[in-house]
Amino acid sequence: MKPLILGIGNILLSDEGVGVRAVQALEKRAEISPHFSARYDIVDGGTCGMELLDTLANREYVVVIDAVLAGKKPGEILVLKDEQVPVFFSRKISPHQLGLCDVLSALKLTDEYPKNLCLIGVQPDSLEPNIGLTETVEHAMPAVFVRLNRILTEYGLPTLDH
Prior knowledge:
It comes from Exercitatus varius. The protein is α/β, with parallel strands linked by helices. It is built from 6 helices and 5 strands; from the N terminus they run E-H-H-E-H-E-E-H-H-E-H. The protein has a single domain, classed as Rossmann fold (3-Layer(aba) Sandwich). The protein is globular.
């Protein structure tokens, strides 16, 4: 099974949609570089919860990109790995994060939990109703992809550019 890059969030709440916007950018890149989409599953998880159960089950590598309230400056990035992820999501900022926490718990119970799980979290500037990211978070997007490349390298996987 291919490594999964999962973007979650609500694009109707400004920066809450950063994960979805990130995977949309990756999907465009995959259209240009077919080898990238051949190596990775890129999924827009939106605000799904338990619907993601089969998508996440038995993966060796899962990288989730999402907005997180972590007490950082807007646009700052937080990276959490493995057991840190469900612990962080249990203090949810939105219903989809509780849904993902439930999915991870279910996967653990059925022994289908991802072997390597990573969260790239971006501190939002605004969660107000608005379509589109704030300028602050939009400017953080290149750093999200730099972090993603670092994580892929740590996992021994091809980076976005190779």
